């Protein structure tokens, strides 16, 4: 299914009141234990980020999903955080990857002298797989040593996963809205990224998220491009 998209930059053009209400409806459909208005205010309107980039996904004139990236300067680094949600019939991991990776590298190219990291939570195995199978360097990852210092720096209040001995878990008190059948499908999945996520974070359906870090630099560009080539 090919969806129409529309992109926004907070410092140039932001969403209308009608679009705000539509996005909040997507949020309400996507997450449990969330007040959609409070969630929207926190991620879309709060001070702190120097920039936000948003892509909306449409079927016809109906908004069916969104992908939001925020960019914040913290000490000597720039931190990217993300939020994405779709109505159940439109959930597909590949929807957000190209937008996210492109905007991340565009930020790096504008200020290559600053260290740049994606550092945020992933609520579900599907979300992790959508990114991990396409990204060259990502932590946690079964084939990469964990940079424990970065997890202590970016997730100091998080919990340690026994599987990694690193602070890569976060209690977020919200979950993606999955049915019982979908949760069973995750348990039965033979996909390596799905299995690994559940090994690290078996309580993802109870309000615990996996904290993920992705560096954005020249080596990442090369390794990710090579991985994309091999996936074709």
Largest sheet, if any? 8 strands, mixed
The order of strands across the largest sheet is 1-3-4-5-6-10-8-7
Which blocks of ≥5 consecutive residues have pLDDT under 50? none
What is the CATH architecture annotation?
Answer: 3-Layer(aba) Sandwich
Strand content bin: 25-35%
Q: What's the CATH C level?
A: Alpha Beta
CATH fold group: Aminopeptidase
Order of helices and strands: EHEHEEEHEHHEEEHHEH
Q: Structural class, from helix and strand content?
A: alpha+beta
Question: Which outline best applies?
Answer: globular
The count of domains is 1
For the termini, the CA-CA separation is 19 Å
Q: Helical element count?
A: 8
Tally of extended strands? Answer: 10
Q: Compute the CA-based radius of gyration.
A: 17 Å
Global mean pLDDT = 94
Q: How much helix, percentage-wise, in residues?
A: 25-40%
Outline the structure in words:
The chain is of the alpha+beta class. The chain has one domain: Aminopeptidase (3-Layer(aba) Sandwich), CATH 3.40.630. Helices cover 38% and strands 29% of the residues. It contains eight helices and ten strands. The strands form two sheets. The protein has an eight-stranded mixed β-sheet with strand order 1-3-4-5-6-10-8-7, with helices on both faces. It is globular, with a radius of gyration of 17 Å.
In short:
With 232 residues, this protein is α+β, with helices and mostly antiparallel strands. The protein has one domain: Aminopeptidase (3-Layer(aba) Sandwich), CATH 3.40.630. 38% of the residues lie in helices and 29% in strands.
């Amino acid at each position: 299914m090919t969806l129409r998209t529309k992109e926004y930059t907070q410092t140039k053009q932001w969403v209308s009141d009608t679009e705000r209400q539509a996005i909040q409806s997507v949020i309400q459909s996507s997450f449990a234990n969330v007040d959609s208005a409070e969630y929207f205010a926190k991620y879309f309107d709060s001070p702190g980020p120097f920039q936000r980039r948003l892509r909306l996904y449409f079927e016809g004139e109906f908004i069916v999903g969104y992908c939001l990236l925020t960019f914040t300067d913290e000490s000597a680094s720039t931190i990217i955080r993300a939020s994405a949600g779709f109505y159940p019939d439109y959930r597909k991991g590949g929807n957000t990857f190209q937008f996210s990776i492109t905007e991340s590298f565009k930020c790096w190219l504008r200020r290559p002298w600053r260290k740049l990291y994606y550092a945020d939570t992933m609520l579900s195995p599907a979300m992790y797989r959508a990114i991990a199978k396409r990204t060259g360097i990502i932590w946690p990852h079964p084939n990469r040593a964990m940079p424990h210092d970065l997890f202590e720096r970016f997730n100091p209040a998080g919990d340690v996963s026994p599987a990694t001995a690193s602070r890569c878990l976060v209690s977020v008190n919200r979950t993606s809205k999955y049915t019982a059948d979908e949760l069973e499908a995750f348990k039965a999945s033979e996909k390596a990224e799905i299995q690994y996520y559940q090994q690290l974070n078996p309580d993802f359906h109870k309000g615990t998220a996996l904290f993920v870090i992705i560096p954005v630099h020249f080596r990442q560009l090369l390794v990710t491009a090579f991985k994309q080539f091999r996936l074709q």
